[in-house]
Amino acid sequence: MAGEYRFTFGPWNIHEGADPFGPTVRDSIAFADKLRQFKSLGFDGVQFHDDDAVPGMNDLGPAEIKAQASEVKSMLDGEGLAAEFVAPRLWEDPRTIDGGYTSNDASCREFARDRSRRTIDIANALETKLIVLWLAREGTYIREAKDSKVAVDRLVEAINDMLAYDPEIKIAIEPKPNEPMDQAYIPTTGHAIALAYRSDDPARVGVNIESAHAILAGLDPSDEMGFALSCDKLYTVHLNDQNGLKFDEDKSFGSVDLRRAFNQVRILDKYDFGKRGEFVGLDVKAMRTQKKGDATKHLSNSREIFLRLLEVVRSLDVAKVEELIGARDYEELDLMIVSALMG
Q1: Which of 17, 104, 138, 321 is most buried by a 10 A CB count?
Q2: Model confidence over 279-296: pLDDT tens digits?
Q3: pTM surpassing 0.85?
Q4: Cross-strand bridge partners of residue 83
Q5: What residue spans define the domains of the chain?
């Protein structure tokens, strides 16, 4: 078994509660104040978008970006935290409205590539070698808007550009089938891993599997994780939960389907996830109705649910499970799992 697990979340997971249909409901919390809460909540690492570490980075030169990121590294050290990864935020700039790497405009594609290089600079300053790519606007609203073959080729070119810029980084593609685009070019783990094998250095390109994103694709997150583990491509995870095939909800882990969460914990633990330094990442958001003083419970709760499910996983009678599988008595196995979850 993998032993002890280390957990991370991103500063965006402590948020003001605004949604597309309503304004903020909680006051903003300064970045430094968020960092001070990580350890008390049981977390050892921080996930970053590039501009979480260096706000306004588009107005700064490379040297200024590195200097500001180094200041953030000092803040992390002061709190006893590590940076897990850095992700280029390519979906909020006017130049990426039609996608970054797959934009039909060559100047916009170059902006996306340059920002990705600056993201790598930030990652180096924060002393992490993991870059996460959520390909948010790399897709279309109508099929005729882009050539899908060309778009995939451009994604490969962008990944190769990052790999060449720094020979030590690893890239984790975070697939999602929709939202904000109608349909994304890399919607599933299989698509992401195929993209990895098309790159110049497949050994350095893998996936970040988010539970909700797999569910939105009509897939089971634990099966997606098993696929990635089989390919040795599971670099990190974003655990959360999702209530049906609609918008990305980022609910607390296990809050919708406890058995689905159980199977994610089970496959991660069975195949020693974490032994090579991987973190268990959460991407969960507080309910909009949650009051400010309790607006971090979704984080500590998700971690607690993971650890309690881990106890259930490790308490299973493995020999009995194998006996039932061998006898093809899946009804009895079903009862055994449900009974374990019911305590």
Answers
A1: 138
A2: 999 999 999 999 998 999
A3: yes
A4: 46
A5: 7-316
Stretch 116-130: mean pLDDT: 98
C-alpha angle 327-333-335 in degrees, rounded to nearest 5: 140
Q: How many residues does the chain have?
A: 343
Q: Which CATH architecture has domain 7-316?
A: Alpha-Beta Barrel (3.20)
How much is the average pLDDT of 77-96?
97
Hey, which residues are catalytic here?
A: 49, 52
